[in-house]
Design a protein that fits this description.
- It is built from eight helices and 13 strands.
- By secondary structure, the protein is α/β, with parallel strands linked by helices.
- It has a six-stranded mixed β-sheet with strand order 5-13-12-6-7-9, sandwiched between helices. It has a three-stranded antiparallel β-sheet with strand order 8-10-11. Strands 1-4 form a two-stranded antiparallel sheet.
- Strand 12 and strand 13 form a beta hairpin.
- The protein is globular and about 50 Å long.
Length: about 290
């Protein structure tokens, strides 16, 4: 949400520069207890100075402590720690100031689930509406997007809703090539308050290095995702991106970093290649 608010403030000229940050440090066992217990945690002491507080458990964590994004073994997520910060400016100001421009955000938006069967259960309709709104407002064709950096926690309900909403929009019309999907949570775990920026930074690096890193912990897709029918491929192996022809070809022999190719003026905007998706229950946010 902070990134979207920063974009709005820049567009309306409330500010000339925005600093967007996120931090997640796992300093207490309290959340682990609540998120991994079965049933109710009825007496959890959160502080010596406070009374016992009743909390309902969410049953959100995977027993192996990993994120099995879109994989059949995924029944929850693994938590991770992270600290991230990005600087956002209007493109004209960044060029004028001689800044090193890593990528251009074409559009961003947020919406809310509305009524669902539970606060941890996402709305497929809300996700799909958000993607369509962002692309329509920016005047971009979803078929031109090569890669989606997904929220991808690995939960059963979350993975199903996300793949279906992505397929409904990006594969609504015939695609010349499959859409690649991955999530940085398979590498870092779910960094929660920092997870949106972690996905954003990964997406920018995909552009700079012209490579999509493997999506870890993926062997067999969850039942019912129908990825082949939706022309969606989870990037389980390294993929090179050929920006000159806007094509993607796997080349395991080129695993080394190619390095950034836009020291001052971006050659590709984020929206021409990548959709970034993340959630802050019960809200959805997206950027291209």
């Amino acid at each position: 949400m902070a990134l979207h608010e920063a974009c709005l403030a820049l567009r309306t000229r409330q500010t000339r520069m925005a600093v967007v940050g996120g931090t997640e440090l796992l300093l207490s066992p309290d959340q682990f207890i609540v998120m991994s217990s079965n049933g109710y945690v009825t007496h959890l002491a959160v502080s010596p100075s406070l009374a016992y507080i009743p909390l309902i458990s969410c049953r959100m964590l995977n027993s192996e402590g990993k994120c099995f994004t879109f994989d059949s073994r995924g029944s929850g997520y693994g938590r991770g720690e992270g600290v991230a910060t990005v600087i956002v400016k209007r493109l004209s100001d960044a060029i004028q100031d001689g800044d090193n421009i890593h990528a251009v955000i074409r559009n961003s938006a947020s919406n809310q689930d509305g009524k669902t069967n539970g606060i941890t259960l996402p709305s497929l309709d809300a996700q799909e509406a958000l993607i369509r709104s962002v692309y329509n407002t920016a005047g971009l064709d979803p078929r031109d997007t090569l890669y989606v950096e997904a929220h991808g926690t690995g939960t059963v309900a979350g993975d199903a809703a996300e793949i279906k909403s992505i397929g409904n929009v990006f594969s609504e019309h015939r695609r010349d090539r499959n859409l690649y999907v991955g999530s940085v949570k398979t590498n870092l775990g779910h960094t929660e308050a920092a997870s949106g920026l972690a996905g954003l930074i990964k997406a920018v690096l995909v552009l700079q290095k012209q490579q999509i890193p493997p999506n870890l912990n993926f062997d067999k897709p969850k039942p019912g995702l129908d990825m082949e029918q939706r022309r969606i491929t989870v990037c389980s192996s390294h993929r090179d991106i050929d920006l000159s022809s806007n094509n993607m070809t796997p080349d395991p022999s080129k695993a080394g970093a190619l390095g950034p190719r836009r020291p001052s003026r971006p050659r590709q905007s984020l929206g021409q290649l990548i959709w970034i998706w993340w959630h802050e229950l019960p809200c959805h946010l997206g950027a291209i």
